[in-house]
C-alpha cells in the first residue's frame, strides 16, 4: 500500500502558516506574554507566606477552617523546599490558560448544546484535541511562538479545552425539557431562558468541566517545561534529565500541593455560585451538629476584607522589593540555551558567570537539542555553547544554518563512540558487538532522542556494522544513561552505552572505547559556540570574547567536576569554585578593554542600598554600586521615598544609605529610629538648606524680601517630596518665622521642582524653589540663595552614611570603606554632571565615565590589600 504523506502535509501546513500568518502569531505572543507577565507580577510581588495567607483565606471562604489551615501549611512547605518561585510561575501559566479556555469553551459548549449540527461538527475536533499526545502540541507551538511560556500556554489551551466544551454541552442538554418548555410557554426570550434557567441548572456540570480544565492544564504545564516554559515543569524536566531524586521529589510534591488546592477550590466554588450547591452546603452543615464550627465559612464580604488587608500588607512590603541594579554591561539581557550534557551545562554556566561579572543579565535554560536549535533560529535564544559540528548536529545545522552564526570552536577534537566496561572481554571494536547481543541484553543504552549522536547511531552505525536486528537503542537521557552505567559497573554487568570524549566518565569508570574502523561516527567534531543571526552585530564585544574562547581537556573536566560537586541548582557556585582555582581566567576570556580590579574580602555579598531621588543620593549610590561590582559584590539598589527608606533601614530591609542629612534636615527620622541604626560617618561637610530665586529677580535677597514680593511669585513656593525633612522644617519653622504661612508650598517632587525652575528661567519669570547646597542647579542657573537672618533653617547639615545596626557585622569590609570615604564639592559636582549628561536610565554609563576621568578612585574608595 502506498505511503500516505500525512506528516509531510502537516509539515507543509505548519510552514505555510508560519510564513503567512507570522503577524498573527506575533500578536498572540505579545497578548499572552503580557497577560502572563501581569498575573505573574501580581502573584510574585507578596512575600511567600503572605500569598499563602491570602490563598488560605480563600480556602476558608470556600471550604472551611480545616481547608484554610491545610492550605497555609501546604504552601508554607513549598516555600521551605525552595520551590515557591517555580510554583508561582506555574500557577500564573495555569490561570492564564484556564481563563482563555473558559472564555472560549463555555460559549462553544452552549452553541453545541443549542445546535446539533455544531455539536456534531465539534465532536471529532474535540476528540483530536483530547487524544493527541500532549507533547505533540509543543512542536508547532515552538515554530509559531518560539520558546518560553507562550507555546506552553497555547498548547495547554488546546489540550485542556475539550472537557469544558463537552461538559457545558452536557449540562445544558440535561436540563429538564419541561422547565425549558414552561419558560417558553410564558413567552420568555431564548436568551433569558438560557441565562435564567439553563445555565443556573447546568452550573454544577459546567464547574466540573472547569475543574477538569484546571487539572489538565496543570499536567500540561509540567510538560511545557521542556520548551522553556519555566515553573515546576522546568524543575521536573531538570530532575528527570539529571536523575536528581531530591529535586524530582520536591518539584513533584509542589505540583501535588498546587493541584490539590486548585482541585478542591474549584470543586467548592460550585457551592458558592450555584443555588443547588448552596442548598446542599446548608444541608451538610446542618448534619454536622456540634462540629459545625469546623465548616463555618466567613461571609463573602468578610473574606474579601481579609484578602484586601493581606494584599495591602503585601503591597506595603513590596516597597522594599528587589532593586533593578545594572552592571557594566548596562544590564543588557543575553539568553543562553543548553542541552543537559555535562560540557554544555559547564560552559553555559561559566559564560553566565563571566557575563554577570561584565555587567550583563544572562538567562540560562535547558532544552532538548531540537527545540534549542529551532528556538535559536527564531531568535529566542542568543547563544548556545555546545554545538557538535560538523557531524553530530549536522542535521540541525543543515536545516537552520542560514539563521545562525558560528562563533568558533572552543574545543577540538571530540569523538563519538560506544563504550563498554573494561571487564567485558573480547569487545574492542564495533565489529565485536555482533553476535553478542544476548550478553548485553540486546540493547545499547542511549541518551536524549534528539541528540545528533543518537541519529548517527541509528541511521548509520547500526547499519554499517549489521547490528540493527540484534540491538535495540534505548532512548533516555544523559543522566539516565550514566545512572544505568554506574549501576551496571557496580554489579559487574555487561553494558554498552553511547558516550563521547571528552567526558568525566572515562576518569571515574574503567571503560573501553570501541574502535570504529569503518568511520561511521565520523572523524570527530569540534565544540562550537553558535549565535542567533545578528548576535555579533547586536553584541560585538561578547561575540569577540566568544570567538577567542578556548578550554583544554584538563580545564573542561575539572570544571565539570566542580559543578557536579556543587550539586543540582548550585551550578554557579561550582563555577566560582573553579574560577578561584583558575585566577585571571575571566579577564583573559573577557578583557572588555576596561581596567580589572581585585576582588574584595567579602566578594559575592549582596548589600541592599537605598536612595532617595535626589541628585547627590543618585550619584553616590550608583557610584558605590559600580565600585562594589568591581570588587565582586552584588549590590541591589532601591529608589525609595524618604519615609519608607528610613523605615526599611530600621527593619533591616535596607542595609545602608548614603544621603542622610543630619543633624537637622532628617532629625525626626533619626530620633525615631536611632536605636535600630548606626551612624557610619559623614562624607560631605557642610551643606545648607535654602529657598532660591533666579538672580534676575531684583530686590529679593532674604526670606523677609520674599514675603514682601508675594504677588510677584503668585504666592507660591515650589517644593520637593512632602516627606523630606527640609519640607517639614519649611512649613513648621521657616514659614511661621518669616510670615510665609499664606504661601502655597507645592510638593510634586525634586524632578518637578527642577522642571518648573527651568521653565520659569527660560521665560525669565519669577520663581521661588526649595533647594540645597551642594546642587548642580547652582552651576547651571544664576540663582540667589535667600539669606536666613533668623537662622530658622538651623545649623548646617553633614551628608552622612547611615546603616541598619547589623550593617557593620554583615558587611565589615564595605562598612570600613564607607567610614573612610569623603568627597569634595568639585568631585560631587562633576559626578552629578556626568550622570546628568548620560541621561535618565544611563546612570551606570555616567558613573563609568566619571571613574575613567578619575584614575585610582576605586582603589582610593575601596582599598583591597
UniProtKB/TrEMBL annotation:
Matching Pfam families: BPD_transp_1, OpuAC
Subcellular location(s) per record: Cell membrane; Membrane
Gene3D superfamilies listed in its UniProt record: Dipeptide-binding Protein, Domain 3, Glycine betaine-binding periplasmic protein, domain 2, MetI-like
Superkingdom of origin: Bacteria
UniProt KW keywords: Cell membrane, Membrane, Transmembrane, Transmembrane helix, Transport
Lipid bilayer topology: Multi-pass membrane protein
The family this protein is said to belong to: Belongs to the binding-protein-dependent transport system permease family. In the N-terminal section; belongs to the binding-protein-dependent transport system permease family.
Protein name per Swiss-Prot or TrEMBL: ABC transporter permease/substrate binding protein
Organism: Streptomyces sirii
Lineage of the organism: Bacteria, Bacillati, Actinomycetota, Actinomycetes, Kitasatosporales
Amino acid at each position: 500500500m502506498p505511503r500516505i504523506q500525512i506528516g509531510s502535509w502537516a509539515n507543509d501546513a505548519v510552514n505555510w502558516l508560519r510564513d503567512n500568518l507570522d503577524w498573527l502569531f506575533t500578536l498572540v505572543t505579545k497578548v499572552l506574554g503580557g497577560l502572563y507577565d501581569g498575573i505573574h507580577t501580581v502573584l510574585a510581588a507578596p512575600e511567600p507566606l503572605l500569598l499563602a495567607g491570602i490563598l488560605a483565606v480563600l480556602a476558608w471562604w470556600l471550604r472551611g477552617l480545616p481547608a484554610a489551615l491545610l492550605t497555609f501549611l501546604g504552601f508554607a512547605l513549598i516555600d521551605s523546599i525552595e520551590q515557591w518561585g517555580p510554583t508561582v510561575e506555574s500557577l500564573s501559566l495555569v490561570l492564564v490558560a484556564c481563563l482563555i479556555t473558559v472564555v472560549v469553551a463555555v460559549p462553544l459548549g452552549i452553541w453545541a448544546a443549542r445546535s446539533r449540527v455544531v455539536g456534531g461538527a465539534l465532536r471529532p475536533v474535540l476528540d483530536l484535541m483530547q487524544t493527541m499526545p500532549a507533547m505533540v502540541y509543543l512542536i508547532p507551538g515552538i515554530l509559531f511562538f518560539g520558546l518560553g511560556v507562550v507555546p506552553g500556554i497555547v498548547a495547554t489551551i488546546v489540550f485542556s479545552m475539550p472537557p469544558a466544551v463537552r461538559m457545558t454541552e452536557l449540562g445544558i442538554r440535561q436540563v429538564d425539557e419541561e422547565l425549558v418548555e414552561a419558560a417558553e410557554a410564558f413567552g420568555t426570550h431564548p436568551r433569558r431562558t438560557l441565562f435564567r434557567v439553563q445555565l443556573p441548572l447546568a452550573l454544577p456540570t459546567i464547574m466540573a468541566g472547569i475543574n477538569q480544565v484546571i487539572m489538565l492544564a496543570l499536567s500540561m504545564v509540567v510538560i511545557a517545561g521542556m520548551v522553556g516554559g519555566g515553573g515546576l515543569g522546568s524543575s521536573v524536566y531538570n530532575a528527570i534529565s539529571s536523575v536528581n531524586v531530591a529535586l524530582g521529589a520536591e518539584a513533584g510534591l509542589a505540583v501535588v500541593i498546587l493541584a490539590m488546592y486548585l482541585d478542591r477550590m474549584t470543586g467548592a466554588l460550585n457551592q458558592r455560585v450555584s443555588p443547588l450547591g448552596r442548598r446542599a452546603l446548608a444541608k451538610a452543615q446542618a448534619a454536622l451538629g456540634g462540629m459545625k464550627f469546623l465548616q463555618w465559612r466567613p461571609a463573602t464580604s468578610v473574606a474579601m476584607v481579609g484578602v484586601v488587608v493581606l494584599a495591602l500588607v503585601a503591597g506595603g512590603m513590596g516597597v522594599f522589593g528587589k532593586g533593578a541594579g545594572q552592571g557594566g554591561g548596562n544590564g543588557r539581557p543575553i539568553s543562553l540555551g543548553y542541552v543537559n550534557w555535562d560540557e554544555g551545562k559547564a560552559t553555559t554556566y561559566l559564560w553566565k558567570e563571566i557575563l554577570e561579572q561584565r555587567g550583563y543579565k544572562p538567562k540560562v535554560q535547558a532544552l532538548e537539542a531540537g527545540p534549542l536549535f529551532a528556538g535559536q533560529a527564531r531568535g529566542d535564544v542568543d547563544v548556545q555553547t555546545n554545538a557538535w559540528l560538523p557531524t553530530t548536529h549536522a542535521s540541525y545545522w543543515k536545516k537552520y544554518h542560514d539563521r545562525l552564526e558560528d562563533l568558533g570552536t572552543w574545543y577540538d577534537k571530540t569523538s563519538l563512540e560506544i563504550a563498554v566496561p573494561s571487564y567485558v572481554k573480547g569487545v574492542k571494536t564495533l565489529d565485536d558487538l555482533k553476535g553478542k547481543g544476548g550478553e548485553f541484553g540486546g540493547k545499547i543504552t542511549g541518551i536524549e532522542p534528539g541528540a545528533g549522536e543518537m541519529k548517527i547511531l541509528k541511521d548509520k552505525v547500526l547499519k554499517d556494522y549489521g547490528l540493527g536486528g540484534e540491538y535495540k537503542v534505548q532512548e533516555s537521557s544523559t543522566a539516565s544513561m550514566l545512572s544505568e552505567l554506574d549501576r551496571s559497573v557496580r554489579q559487574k554487568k555487561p553494558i554498552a552505552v553511547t558516550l563521547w570524549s571528552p567526558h568525566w566518565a572515562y576518569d571515574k569508570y574503567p571503560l573501553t572505547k570501541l574502535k570504529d574502523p569503518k568511520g561511521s561516527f565520523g572523524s570527530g567534531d569540534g565544540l562550537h559556540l553558535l549565535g542567533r543571526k545578528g548576535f555579533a552585530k547586536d553584541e560585538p564585544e561578547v561575540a569577540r570574547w566568544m570567538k577567542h574562547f578556548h578550554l583544554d581537556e584538563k580545564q573542561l573536566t575539572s570544571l565539570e567536576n566542580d559543578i557536579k560537586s556543587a550539586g543540582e541548582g548550585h551550578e554557579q557556585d561550582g563555577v566560582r569554585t573553579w574560577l578561584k582555582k583558575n585566577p585571571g581566567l575571566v579577564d583573559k576570556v573577557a578583557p572588555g578593554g576596561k581596567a580589572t580590579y581585585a576582588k574584595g574580602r567579602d566578594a559575592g555579598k549582596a548589600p541592599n542600598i537605598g536612595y532617595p531621588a535626589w541628585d547627590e543620593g543618585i550619584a553616590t549610590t550608583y557610584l558605590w554600586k559600580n565600585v562594589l561590582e568591581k570588587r565582586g559584590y552584588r549590590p541591589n539598589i532601591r529608589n525609595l521615598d524618604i519615609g519608607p527608606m528610613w523605615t526599611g533601614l530600621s527593619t533591616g530591609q535596607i542595609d545602608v544609605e548614603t544621603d542622610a542629612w543630619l543633624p537637622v534636615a532628617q532629625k525626626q527620622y533619626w530620633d525615631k529610629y536611632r536605636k535600630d541604626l548606626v551612624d557610619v560617618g559623614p562624607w560631605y561637610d557642610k551643606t545648607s538648606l535654602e529657598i532660591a530665586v533666579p538672580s534676575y529677580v531684583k530686590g529679593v535677597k532674604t526670606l523677609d524680601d520674599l514675603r514682601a514680593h508675594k504677588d510677584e511669585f503668585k504666592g507660591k513656593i515650589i517644593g520637593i517630596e512632602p516627606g523630606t525633612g527640609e519640607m517639614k522644617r519649611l512649613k513648621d519653622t521657616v514659614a511661621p518665622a518669616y510670615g510665609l504661612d499664606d504661601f502655597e508650598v507645592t510638593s510634586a517632587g525634586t524632578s518637578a521642582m527642577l522642571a518648573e525652575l527651568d521653565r520659569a528661567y527660560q521665560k525669565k519669570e519669577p520663581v521661588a524653589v526649595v533647594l540645597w547646597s551642594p546642587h548642580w542647579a547652582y552651576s547651571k542657573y544664576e540663582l540667589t540663595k535667600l539669606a536666613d537672618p533668623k537662622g530658622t533653617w538651623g545649623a548646617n547639615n553633614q551628608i552622612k552614611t547611615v546603616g541598619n545596626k547589623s550593617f557593620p557585622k554583615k558587611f565589615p569590609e564595605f562598612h570600613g570603606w564607607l567610614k573612610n570615604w569623603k568627597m569634595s564639592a568639585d568631585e560631587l559636582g562633576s559626578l552629578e554632571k556626568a550622570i546628568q549628561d548620560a541621561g535618565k536610565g544611563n546612570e551606570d554609563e555616567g558613573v563609568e565615565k566619571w571613574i575613567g576621568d578619575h584614575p585610582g578612585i576605586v582603589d582610593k574608595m575601596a582599598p583591597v590589600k
